[in-house]
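Quick one: structure tokens for this chain, please?
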Amino acid sequence: MPPTENDYPTTEISRVRREYPRGSHERAVIHALLDAAPVCHVGYVIDGQPFVTPTMHWRDGDRLYWHGSAASRMLRASDGARVCLTCTFMDGFVLARSAFNHSVNYRSVMAFGTARKVEGDAEKAAALKAFTDGVFPGRWETLRPMTDQEVKATSVLWMDIEEATIKTRAAPPGDVDEAAFPVWAGVLPFHWTMGEAQPAPDMPDGIALPEPLSALIASGRLR
């Protein structure tokens, strides 16, 4: 299908080459996975050497943010550079009748853009508040305020999503022509959930788990 205004632009960088029907450039689908994923991996190059660094991220419209130490080589090298940010959910092992046809069910996004540093302490603090409350609604106002030194020690990067691709597989084994072979075949699914909260060992008595966190755990979602 030709791209629409609801899709990200596609070039040779982001075009899906293999298993084309599994790919999409639709903004809403890509945004949903970026919002659900608890961790991303940022790919960048320093002096010709590729690196990929895991971190946490958050989204505001078509803009992605991530953060780390102001001394981080990744953050310093990425500022002003082209980067690729990826998120992946593995949803299950797909066991076929032959080793060749084994696969996995998954959802994966690749997003491309130019990384920029958030300038100014007030802007950084606002971005970090949006990040914290985006993961744990209402938590920022309950926390000890960040010190000036903590703000200075933290860098926040952002990039506007220029291109992005999502690929998914959600299917049984693709070897129906071998169904008569006498071996078990099917899917071993993965389920991504939160477990029971574990209080810090030195927490004073009488401090209960906040209701928003209880609701978050009960909802079964990660973000």
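The domain at 20-191 is CATH 2.30.110.10 (Pnp Oxidase; Chain A).
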